[in-house]
Amino acid sequence: MSIFGNSIFGHKAQDTAVPAPGASSAAGGKGVEKTDAQWREELTPEEYHVLRQAGTERPYTGEYWDTHTAGVYQCRACGTELFTSKEKFDSHCGWPSFWAPLAEGNVRYIHDRTLGMDRVEVRCASCDSHLGHVFEGEGFGTPTDQRFCINSISIRLVPQEDSQVSGAEREN
Question: 10 Å Cβ neighbour count for 108?
Fold first, then answer.
C-alpha cells in the first residue's frame, strides 16, 4: 500500500497537492510564514535556490549522500524534524535516500510535471521548502518500496550521542 492511498505514481492527479493520509497542512497545524526577502536574508544563495525555488544540487556533491552518522535530519530552513538515519539507505543515486519520513505530517507531496517528467515532489510541511522527490517501485527492498531522494542542502543532520550507525543498519 502506498503512502498515497491510491498511488498517484503512473496516474494523472487532478490536484497539484497530494496530502499524506491524516496529515494537516503543516506539522503541528501552523506553518512558518516568511517573506521572500526574509528567506533570502536567512539562507545562502545555494540553499535559497534549492529550498525556495525547487532547485536540485548536483549528485555526489552534497554533504549527506554518503553519510552513515546516526541522528535526525531537520529541514535546513525551519528546523522541522523530517527523517532519521534509521530510514536512510544507500541507493547509490548521489543524494541522501530514505525509505520513509520521520512522520507523515512533517512532509507534504506535490504532483510535479516539470522537466517533462511525472514525479512526486517532497516539501517540508512547516515552511513549504523543497526537499526533493519520492519514487516507488524501484526494487530496493526497503519496507515501503519507496526512495525519498532528498537534497543534502535541504536538510541538516543533528547527530545522536552514539554518532555511528551500526553496520547492520547501514546495509538497509
Answer: 24
Quote the cell numbers at residue 42: 536567512
123, β-bridge pairs: 108, 130
Residue 117: per-residue pLDDT? 81
Within 10 A of 169 (CB to CB), how many other CB atoms are there?
A: 15
Q: Which helix (H) or strand (E) holds 82?
A: strand 81-84
Whether the CB-CB separation of 71 and 163 falls below 8 Å is answered with: yes
Q: Which DSSP string corresponds to 83-150? A: EEGGGEE--SSSS-EESS-S-GGGEEEEEE-GGG--EEEEEETTT--EEEEEEE-S----TTSEEEEE
Q: How far apart are CA 133 and CA 34, in angstroms?
A: 23
Q: How far apart are CA 97 and CA 135, in angstroms?
A: 10
**Coil, strand or helix: which one is 26?**
coil
Return the active site residues. Answer: 149
Between 3 and 108, the more confident residue is: 108
Task: Tell me the pTM.
Answer: 0.77
| Confidence (pLDDT) at 65 | 93
> C-alpha angle with apex 30: 29 to 36, nearest 5 degrees?
145
